[in-house]
Amino acid sequence: MAELNIRERQAGDITVLDMDGRITIGEGSVALRSAIRRLLEEGKKKILLNLAGVGYIDSSGIGELVSSYTAINKDGGQLKLLSLTQKLQDLLTITKLLTVFDAYDNEADALSDFK
Amino acid sequence: MTDQTTRLVLPSHIEAVADAAAAVTDFIRNCGVSEEAAFGVEMAVREAVTNAMVHGNHEDESKSVEVIFNCHANELEVEIRDQGEGFDPATVPDPTNAENLLKTSGRGIFLMRTFMDQIEWVNRPGGGTMVRMSKRF
User: Fold this and answer.
1) B39 in contact with A, Cβ within 8 Å
2) A76 falls within a domain
3) 0.80 surpassed by pTM
4) Could you read off the pLDDT of A86-99 as tens digits, one per residue?
5) Is A63 within 8 Å of B111 when comparing Cβ atoms?
């Protein structure tokens, strides 16, 4: 089984990536990077990462979230995070990245905040 | 509880990081570490082993990373040894400073310090770096 499974769906012009697994150095980080690159190549620039199924992330995975955020912003898009597990929320708090990312508990709220 | 020790020797490719993480998870389960602390210990070991493989041994598979877990009465001690050129943790900037927040790397040591009670880096006389970290429980 893959370290990180990513399922894609559309909500209007917003692409939601439902992620399940681990975002760690190697396969998980590469899978996230590849998915974001592909979406940007397809012109999909409003992206919501649903992290409800991500039970573990390491510094490489956190770096990949930051890299995704900067790549999407640079392309004129927006990245938002949905349904952080408590551990992931704690990690983004101690690394002060919750001051960078827009994170939501509720999908409808997240979708309505895209411009 | 009697003292327990486990020693691993891993090749320097990143797939082996998961082996170290699985080993520490198994080890600390028998050590009395709480589930909450176990999350942080696994994180710290992952980060230390990744640093040893990537920054210490430059993913040279002819070089190995040695990981030793020791469990004493109320403390877990972990040593990670690489065969690199040595390392000065003081050169790593604080990733939580505003100017570093959007950097895509440089958080591993911060996380190790966050989750472990004590941590030190020793440049080994024969070459390479040893990271020694401990967690009380």
Assistant:
1) yes
2) yes
3) yes
4) 999 999 999 999 99
5) no
